[in-house]
Amino acid sequence: MSALLEVSGLEVHYGGIQAVKGIDLRVNQGELVTLIGANGAGKTSTLKALAGLLRPAAGQIRFAGQSLVGMPVHQLIRNGLALVPEGRGVFPRLTVAENLMMGAYVRRDADGIIADLERMYGLFERLHERREQKAGTLSGGEQQMLAIGRALMGRPRMLLLDEPSMGLAPLMVQKIIGVIRQVANEGMTVLLVEQNARLALQAAERAYVMEGGRISFEDTAQACLNDPRVRAAYLGE
User: SS3 helix, strand, coil % of the chain, rounded to 5?
Assistant: First the structure.
């Protein structure tokens, strides 16, 4: 498998605090990989560095063979990297349909955009029902669907997801994870940061465990589910 994303020696600092301490990871083309760990482990800082929202203090990030360090966020998006942030970040005063169209702002293929809009409504039937509703009036789960749909409207090569299950009811979580697995099965490359370790490991192919800003363990997701250290620390067993 060829690596789409390669990270080596990544360090991220907040003032005098080193949040990420020289990590290495890779995500192969078409893979669904998860990064799990406790609060404060450095997961979100890692994603923000990958998405260009934080400048690394050291290390290298390569996407499709090209260095991303120092690249403007809008260029990262044009290159095919899409972040669905923690907290969703929808445009509350725009309708569902307008939010989805915002995800396609870098595209010029009008017919393809309309086709993808219909595809999003197929993936997320709730969004179709609420397409003329202001995004700020949606439930948390509906906003999460919208944030994922908006990212997919850009036709990214890779999706970065930060805590998509946070604060959602169990049925909504299953719907969200089901869609993530579906788009991964259709060939989308996904890096999933998720505090619900069991959920993430059941969805992913490979996993990295992050502790104190470092990668402490990596293996297939199934091996992590069976590993006594992971089970004790993250699965409550």
Answer: 40, 30, 35
Give the C-alpha separation, 208 to 33, whole Å: 8
Q: If residue 196 lies in a helix (H) or strand (E), which one and from where to where?
A: none
- pTM score: 0.94
- How many angstroms from the chain centroid is the CA of residue 98? 22
Per-residue model confidence as pLDDT tens digits over 149-202: 999 999 999 999 999 999 899 999 999 999 999 999 999 999 999 989 999 999
Q: For residue 211, report the phi and psi dihedrals to the nearest 5 degrees.
A: -140, 125
Domain with residue 11: its CATH number is: 3.40.50.300
Q: Note whether 30 and 139 are same-domain residues.
A: no
Question: Could you tell me the residue range of the domain that residue 3 belongs to?
Answer: 1-80+159-237
